[in-house]
Design a protein that fits this description.
Distance between the termini: 95 Å
Radius of gyration: 29 Å
Mean pLDDT: 88
Helix content: 25-40%
Largest sheet: 4 strands, antiparallel
Number of domains: 2
Number of helices: 3
Strand content: 15-25%
Number of strands: 4
Length: 150
């Protein structure tokens, strides 16, 4: 037999070594994917948290900047439908999300929301910085907005 005929193809030992090396590499890559999947947030939870935060932000942006009369009081879950000013939302918190009329939304019972409103000048004009934090389990999002006195 000439050396040319013996050099064609793979031996069984070479094939087994190749399979072991490729298997180890694939196992390492799969381990990274599994770890990443476990650590990633559930997209449904995040989308619902964003929707809750945006809804609260729209609610706050829709009220007058300053109280139009003497009837304004701090916002609670029970009195959200009353007349409020932007600053009245400072310290507002919900355990379990409810609608403006106070009706609890059962599918959002595992969520918490908190609002802070801090007076902050905007280019020399009166303004407020609004921060809304919505959390569910280990996942939380923060939404910030600014409202001027216009």
């Amino acid at each position: 037999m000439s050396s040319i005929e013996r050099s064609r193809g793979l031996t069984l030992v070479e094939l087994v070594i190749f399979i072991v090396v490729v298997s180890a590499a694939v196992a390492g890559v799969l381990a990274v994917f599994v770890q990443t999947t476990r650590a990633s947030a559930d997209p449904l939870i995040r989308k619902q948290a964003v929707a809750v935060a945006e809804s609260l932000m729209e609610e706050i942006m829709a009220v007058p900047y300053a109280c139009p009369d003497a009837s304004c009081v701090a916002v609670t879950t029970a009195n959200r439908g009353a007349t409020h000013a932007v600053a009245d939302y400072n310290g507002f918190a919900m355990t379990g999300i409810s609608a403006v009329d106070g009706t609890a939304i059962a599918s959002l019972a595992g969520y918490n929301a908190a609002v802070t409103v801090v007076a902050q000048a905007l280019n020399g004009a009166n303004g407020s910085r609004i921060t809304i934090t919505v959390a569910s389990g280990a996942e939380s999002i923060v939404l910030e907005g600014w409202r001027g006195n216009y």
